[in-house]
Amino acid sequence: MKRKLLILFGIMLFMIMVGSIIIKISSKNFATELTKSEDKLQVVTSFYPVYMIGLNLAEGIDNMEVKSLTDLKTGCLHDYQLTTEDMKIISAADVMIINGGGMEGFLNDIMTNYPNLTIIDASEGIEMIPSEEVHSDGETVNVPDTSKVINGDGANKAENGTELSNIGWNAHVWLDPQQYIKQVEKIANGLNDYLNTTEAADPSIADKIRSNSDTYISKITELDRSITELANTWSDDNRLGNKEAVIFHDSFAYLARRIGINVAYSIPLDSDTSLSAGEIGKIVDEVKAGDIKYLFTEEQFSDSIASQIAAETGATESIIDSAVTGDGSKDSYLTAMKKNIETLKKLVK
Ligand SMILES: [Zn+2]
Questions:
Q1: How far is the CA of 27 from the centre of ligand 1 (A)?
Q2: What pTM did the predictor assign?
């Protein structure tokens, strides 16, 4: 009897030991998983151009994840409305990167709902081209003198302090590689600040982000050299005549300014825009009267209006890539810009 009790006691003891080991192992696994996901820096970017920067900065860093809030085919966020799915993505983020300059019209909603979220504004401190309020009804809008650059700190004030009523900012700064470099620097600095000042963050990845930033900037600088060469060719070539263009997306104003092409008119077109025959006729008259030689349009929007104007005026239509959509590969900004350079080179041959 005593022996039987001893065996029973032994079995019970064994089972308790096995049980506690199992609990220990599973709780250890659970803890490892929990720490792993907490350690990973979760970055969400608003749309394609800043997503490209995020991807390049995260290159080779296992514990940093970069997501694009919007689909890679969304394009500019001019009329974008946040979805409940977007809110879920933002709620899981440590840092959000935005283009700024008014591109993210939904920014206030994010700031209200997630007051503790770290937001990096990539365009903060970048000088922006002013642009008159854009009307989605297809109304022709004039881009004011693009040589007059104003500090784009979000305030509606010109350099001399005068109020610019009804004038917004052209937020498409990335189409000028020199401005894009400033955006890369701004984002790298913002991430470094976050990593070095947030208790739960892992500051060890800050150096890698910095070196990734240097690598990406050197690639953009190389691209920028080609833009400088192109600008020199344009300024030296007298056969080009009146160096004025009509642009069909505000983004081209930055590329045009870099090359020395004056934007005579900006007619923002998107997938929902259509112009009446009368409106097109008005533009045709203006192009003829101003002897405007160049029309810059965009592939993803309907370019039939630009083609019609080109046919009626003899101006040359060129398709420019705004780098607002792409296949998600980390070099797609560089690829799009190289293609733009080739397109603009063809005009001077
Ligand atoms: Zn746009």
A1: 50
A2: 0.80
